[in-house]
What we know:
This protein has one domain (3-270): TIM Barrel (Alpha-Beta Barrel). Helices cover 43% and strands 18% of the residues. The chain has 9 helices and 14 strands. Helix 5 (150-160) links the parallel strand 7 and strand 8 (165-169). Helix 1 runs parallel beside helix 2 (45-58), helix 3 runs parallel beside helix 4 and helix 5 runs parallel beside helix 7.
Amino acid sequence: MIRISAFGDEIAVDFEEQLKVLQTLKIPCIDVRKAWDITCTEFTRWQVQKINDLCAQYEITVACMGTPIGKTPIQAPIENEAERLKRIADIAHQLGTDNLRIFSFYPEADVTAEVMDNAIQRLQHLTELAETLDVQLLLENEKDLVGETPAQCHQILEAINLPHLRFIWDPANFVQSGAEKQVDSWWSQLHPYIEYIHIKDALLIDGTVKPAGEGDGQVKELLTQLHTNNYDGILSLEPHLVVAGHSSGFSGADGMEVAVKALRKLIAEVGIQEG
């Protein structure tokens, strides 16, 4: 049994409009990255209360906070990210979730063994802090960061191997980093760490983002493995069908509808039931 979520700011700037579209599409959960064009780490107390009120009104649950933590230079003071983590942990708890999407830092140049060790140390520091804050860090693979390839993600997750750091598998991001046959090649190594799935696809030839099943991300194969292994969690739509930026994306209401239909077609073919 799975639940579908979606990045609301892919639909609209206004948070209530995000919820209206998700309700129409029968999506029960939302990933909160921005509301009213404000990044989730900067929400005021009033905005948090407004989000809670609107979510209750539209009967939609906050599944995850799409934080930008770790999408920063690896040489920047880790204390800055630790302070942001403390702030977003408090906001997340107020919104009824403990899931925080994070990243693995921008390297200055090539990802050498020294750079990888540095990223691991920084992420371990944040993971240990997350335990004290009672939040779950979810590491997303992302192009041009230290953890952009399946091998790099596996190295990070295996080295830290703590329950408060788990993995978000994003098929399109792996494609854009050049990964071929990612599920065939890396499922066995990465699946023990999976806690969350992002749904978007992309083409190897040029990185163009596509709806699920229309690219080279082996999305159907990933869903099949998840189903076989009794995955009980979230499939979160982050379609990027109109704008595929490095810090956010946009699909609009129509694009989100296209993405939802593509995903539901695949999960029906695989035999997955929505909960």
